[in-house]
Automatic annotation (TrEMBL), chains A, B, C, D:
PROSITE patterns: 3_HYDROXYISOBUT_DH. This is 3-hydroxyisobutyrate dehydrogenase. The keyword Lipid metabolism does not apply. Signal peptide: none annotated.
Length: 303, 303, 303, 303
């Protein structure tokens, strides 16, 4: 089995690296937080004293970082330090699993290509539960060759592996999907609440729409109205799940992408405004289906 | 088998009445257009010279009319004429299959109840193809008893029969569903186009989102981007299907319902504005997935 | 001076009737609340035991009622009672000052015309302060003749008297104006807050935009950001002024009007959604400039 | 009089530089297009063979460039060349009149400050007509000292000179204003058209709203409905004025700013979507008040 350098051992990165170890990879880790490295070391990881130190000599580098600026400055040399692409061995495969702006992904891919290196942007979905269980979804951008090479490592960490296209396409596809998801959530919420405001039972209405032309993922898996489905955040005071703050981040990335390509996304833009206001009202740490509460609490006011 | 009076023999009503005949019901029809009655008569229908004439003595009355005002004035007496509820025999079941405002449905149901009659609002979806094939979906509002009684007749005309709740609930549920559908269509269109604007293949992006959290009915059955799916309107220059003008009508009903219940539907309201403008640009007779064209034709403008 | 029947003596109607008395008109009043009539009687009004009783024999009838259904049933005969237009003397001028849907205004105007009577829809703006001071704005719909005849009475109650067009035009013009106002308020709020989020002083930004192409009534008279202007609701915890609930009512009328004429009003529709949600969060009785708070409380989050 | 280096002699920069010459400044110009320099040389300007050549030795540097990336790379050194701030004399005042993102303005201001230089961001409004007439509006960001120093040069080119705050504040204030303007234009258009759809005369409705709470700059100076005002683009087939493409650019900058500060701008975001779609339909070179056409051409469809 090959050697993987894993950089960024947070809530997502930690369990992902662990799954690589379990799958038999030799894993060399780095994180700015020593305790995060220590946890992995106890599971069999080698540790490094810098990101470049971890990457030097690895067959595959996997990174999991907060934002585009971190990814750019880690991979590409700047005023203060060398970049990963300057220190890795020829033939090393670079895989960035962060969710970042497409422009940064393309920037790093281009610099990697200039050095003869393959780079894949591979943002994930599935949350910390998926990271621990090894069932993450990866949406990848990069060449066919690189995508092929990455299979073993990605399969060790995830379930569904998609190839969306060339460099940056993984980020674009993920952000298109999440923008669409945010609209599904808002629109399903307002439709269910309008039904409730007219005296309908949200369970019955959900059942009808689920098998009709209003059918969508939120009705199937993640109904935002409390007590319609069991074991979803809406039935648990919107705890757990996917935080509003993370949806706000993804919607910000979607609008950044829309500006870059001169695209018009009226629904996605409106969803961002509604989610930003929702976050400002103190809901940032609650599940994103809590947007339902913006529409509820209606008294039925008849003319 | 029982006797059904069928009033309103347009593109939908005609084939629906025919399916009742085929199922063995005695059907007595009325329409303001004599030729429409003649066609049914040739298939075995009895004809009447007025709506009341058709309804008198029937076990079940089925109506299929354009708008709430027609339904109100047909069922309930006004200055100029008697209403159906004044002339039908005790025990006659009244079924209105028109798509109208919930208020009108409740108005007629209340007047029927005052006379001891059961009334069901049972708007359909499935279009003229579904009407001909007898595979329409009915979404019903009314009492359990009435819903039970209506089964045989509705099964003769349709496939899925839903019971959404009490009087008016059929109209409300249908309009909630169609409002949600309109948002799915717009949001899927803008997401696909943003992907295209960034160089992604809409087929690949559709495949990814379909099985991810962006999954919805339009990606499954009715992709709005040309040449992604076969045999859908988008791959046939947006001919056939469900006309923009009809979506505009349904979105108008949804906003009427939202005003009545003091509900807030930001996504549905925005979809109505976009569809009204789309219709005004000459697209009223095209399929509603043609809203995709509002987002396409983008040149990719990079900063 | 002529005799005026005044029906509806609420917070607005009471002081309006008083100003007619002060101007020398003989005023005969009716209200369902006896105490409201008593107050006016002490100022010299005659009282009646019914609306029709007040109207019979008057030269001018003025009505000030909550909603379209009240205006319809007061003026036009229905199952239970005669309408005003059945009891007034030939030549009586009918003036409705309620803010109602245009359709109801046209309905009454048409029935009045059928009886040879002139009817003016004359909704007001200016609030209770304007009603007391006699400085209300009237926006009138009706014939030139009727508008001419109404001058003396309207001048006794208001400052600006506009003639918007034929029957219903007063309601339409008022609702167009108030829909536009709601958008000005939301857009000014979000623009000011975006400036604040970037470290600008809202006073300075307001001064600049006021004299630039962003200039609008809210920047001139009613700045929504606290402590930019003195003596406006935003500098008094959004007390007083024009209540959110009343703006929600007017935005509902605007959307009803838009549905009736198949008009597209994306900004007005969005403003309604935002104001409905704002009201549901407990702000219904606060001034409508409090929508500013939906955008405030932002921490400045930099990438 | 002092010496001004002027870099960027396009449709705006050319006439601005000429006004500096007329006011008695010694002006040294540079542009990538030799013909643009030649025109100014004929009016008395000195010419340079590079931007740095023009700036070296000047008391004031004025730049007028298309976008943030041009401003960054001109002022600040990068891999390929020195920046202006490396070559100008100590005490030189730097004034950038481009309309760019606030972040780029702050970036350059910071680098200038690091070298002990004062930098002002001073975006303009008023168009090519204002540039020629010397009546431009400048909205400035920078220190009080720098603002004071810039007065003579700015007065030679413009009429209104505002000081919005520290570095970047000029860009932010301009973009807040133009975002607000775009909403005023759309909302005024939809309100006027709704009035027209109900049979009102747009001239009458405009007169009423202009002096009421719907009053705003577009009703005062720039009515979007054809033939309401003379000498505005709407009465000249939307020729001239401020192009849709430029409004799309400014709305893009506004949304970039909103993302940066985590601000919510639902109206501005919606206006951007509507303007992008309008541009895609072939209206990019027409005046921005042509958005009115998105709402017009309505047939009055009554229920």
């Amino acid at each position: 089995m090959s050697t993987v350098a894993f950089i960024g051992l947070g809530n997502m990165g930690g369990p992902m690296a662990l799954n690589l170890i379990k799958a038999g990879f030799t894993v060399k880790v780095f994180d700015l937080v020593p305790a995060a490295m220590q946890t992995l070391a106890e599971q069999g990881a080698l540790t490094a004293t810098s990101a470049c130190g971890a990457a030097a000599g690895a067959d595959i580098v996997v990174t999991m970082l907060p934002a585009g600026k971190h990814v750019r400055s880690l991979y590409v040399t700047d005023d203060t330090s060398k970049g990963l692409i300057d220190v890795v061995a020829p033939g090393t495969l670079l895989i960035d699993c962060s969710t970042i702006d497409a422009d940064s992904a393309r920037f790093v891919a281009q610099h990697a290509a200039n050095k003869g290196l393959e780079f894949i942007d591979a943002p994930v979905s599935g949350g910390t539960a998926g990271a621990a269980a090894g069932t993450l979804t990866f949406i990848c951008g990069g060449s066919d060759t690189a995508f092929e090479q990455a299979q073993d490592a990605l399969n060790a960490m995830g379930g569904n592996i998609f190839h969306a296209g060339g460099p940056g396409a993984g980020q674009v596809a993920k952000i298109c999907n999440n923008m669409l998801l945010s609209v599904l959530m808002v629109a399903t919420s307002e439709s269910l609440q309008m039904g409730i405001d007219h005296g309908l039972d949200p369970k019955v209405l959900s059942e009808i729409m689920k098998v009709s032309s209003g059918g969508n993922w939120t009705l199937d898996k993640y109904n935002p109205c409390p007590d319609v489905m069991e074991s979803v955040p809406s039935s648990n005071d919107y705890q757990g799940g996917f935080m509003v703050d993370l949806m706000v981040k993804d919607l910000g990335l979607s609008q950044e992408a829309a500006l870059l390509s001169n695209s018009s996304t009226p629904m996605g833009a409106l969803a961002r405004s509604l989610y930003v206001n929702h976050a400002k009202q103190g809901n940032g740490k609650r599940d994103f289906s809590s947007i339902f509460e913006q529409f509820a609490q209606s008294e039925q006011i008849k003319k």
